[in-house]
Task: inverse folding
């Protein structure tokens, strides 16, 4: 089966996705994990620093303040929000919710997930935002 | 269409053999779980830990060495690392593997081992650091 299909379809060139806006957005979404990976590695370094003691922890905070690191992490923040925007619209398509026989509108499901993002941010503010 | 094709055995000597991709549901499951964590948890985590903290916009004691140690090196801290580091790592591994396939980089059988292997390794390190902190 795959033999005949690969005979029928010529292999794609590497730049196939540059030819249409939809595919460019798809690739951008795939690329959101690159700044995420950077942030994750920063976080792992922070955990190592925390194990080493108070001085290392302060050093790690200073490292996180370097302009390059800060810009890459701001990029990670933007990437997480872009990923969220693309990911949340998938939920009602993959798992449509029905309550008492009425299907929940897609917009309500998407809004509910954004409410989750806000709730987590508020939790963080409650934990770390006050003196 | 493309994604379906990538898990099929390559044409040639085994073209008639249909190998069941028994592990794929696991990778897609981890991808979804990691995607939810990336979308719901990571914006706040990145904002507070990687932006507000280094800019000095949080109260001085909020993320002091003592407070972070006691928060992180605990059972909730272990779960936090699982949701904020481990699951998003598998999400990233999956996206990278499929992205590399899309732009014909490397070969998928090897990429798969490299990506999921790295995610598993880094996850183990992250959880191990929390356990080390709890014991230490």
Result:
């Amino acid at each position: 089966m795959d033999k005949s299909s690969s005979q029928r379809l010529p292999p794609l060139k590497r730049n196939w996705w540059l030819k249409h806006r939809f595919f460019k957005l798809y690739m951008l979404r795939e690329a959101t994990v690159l700044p995420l990976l950077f942030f994750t590695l920063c976080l792992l370094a922070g955990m190592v620093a925390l194990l080493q003691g108070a001085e290392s922890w302060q050093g790690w905070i200073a490292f996180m303040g370097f302009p390059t690191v800060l810009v890459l992490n701001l990029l990670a923040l933007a990437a997480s929000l872009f990923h969220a925007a693309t990911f949340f619209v998938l939920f009602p398509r993959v798992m449509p919710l029905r309550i008492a026989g009425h299907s929940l509108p897609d917009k309500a499901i998407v809004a509910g997930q954004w409410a989750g993002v806000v709730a987590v941010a508020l939790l963080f503010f409650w934990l770390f935002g006050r003196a | 269409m493309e994604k379906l094709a990538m898990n099929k055995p390559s044409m040639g000597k085994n073209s008639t053999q249909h190998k069941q991709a028994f592990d794929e549901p696991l990778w897609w499951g981890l991808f979804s779980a990691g995607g939810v964590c990336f979308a719901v948890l990571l914006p706040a985590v990145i904002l507070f830990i990687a932006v507000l903290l280094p800019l000095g916009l949080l109260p001085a004691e909020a993320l002091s060495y003592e407070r972070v140690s006691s928060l992180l090196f605990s059972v909730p801290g272990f779960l936090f690392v699982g949701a904020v580091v481990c699951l998003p790592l598998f999400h990233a591994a999956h996206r990278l593997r499929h992205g590399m396939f899309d732009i014909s980089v490397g070969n998928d059988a090897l990429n798969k081992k490299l990506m999921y292997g790295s995610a598993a390794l880094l996850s183990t390190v992250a959880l191990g650091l929390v356990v080390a902190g709890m014991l230490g």
Q: What stands out?
A: Confidence is low (pLDDT under 50) at residues 8-16 of chain B. Helices of chain B lie at 2-6, 24-40, 42-52, 65-72, 75-102, 108-135. The longest helix of chain B spans residues 75-102. Chain B touches chain A through 58 residues (CB under 8 Å).
